[in-house]
Amino acid sequence: MDNFSTPxxxxxxxxxxxxxxxxxxxxxxxxxxxxxxxxxxxxxxSYKVPVMTFFxxxxxxxxxxxxxxxxxxxxxxxxxxxxxxxxxxxxxLLAIAYGFVFALIAGFYTGSTIATAFVSAAAIFVGMAVIGxxxxxxxxxxxxxxRAALIGLIVALVVNLFLQNPMIDYVFSIIxxxxxxxxxxxxxxxxxxxxxxxxxxxxxxxxxxxxxLQLYLDFINLFIYLLEIFGVGGRRN
Length: 237
What we know:
By secondary structure, the chain is mainly alpha-helical. 81% of the residues lie in helices and 0% in strands. The protein contains eight helices and no strands. The longest helix is centred in the last third of the chain and has 33 residues, at 166-198. It is globular and about 55 Å long. The termini are far apart.
């Protein structure tokens, strides 16, 4: 988001335009979640055998599937405001890639656990998005603390890959939910502020795509870590 760091930008004050931007951003985000859900469902049902056979015969492709979202996320962040169509296409490709990842993860959990985690993540996300979009209070400090905590959490998770301590994983999952809850509100507010400050300088659709990406990532992280929390005792044998 460094492309938007220049001060003294003319602000957009038309509330109709702001609401249109927010609707577009949340619409793209919801579409990405839907695409991921459909991809995961189809992967685990209609295409389960060919997909599992393919990854079984080509294990290196599994790692590539896990790395693809990283490259797509970077591409969206740098490209969306310059080429909104390309940014939107990459967002949908990202959603498909994460759908495959979700399908692999879902195989370890029961249907009720997945449903509970999804509904809980959706409830938290909607609540925090509303707060972030409507509050007059700046959430910059909360965002800064949450991002710093996220860096520390990532380091701790890497360390625990070697320790393999389930209780530590459980505690870290709770911490992660708190972090991404805060980041959801912060990102929702930040994207609205970016539109107010830069909406007349860049493509609104491109900026909405960048916002949709960030909020989508917040949501899926909430979902994954809630799945880990609710999955204690709810894993498939």
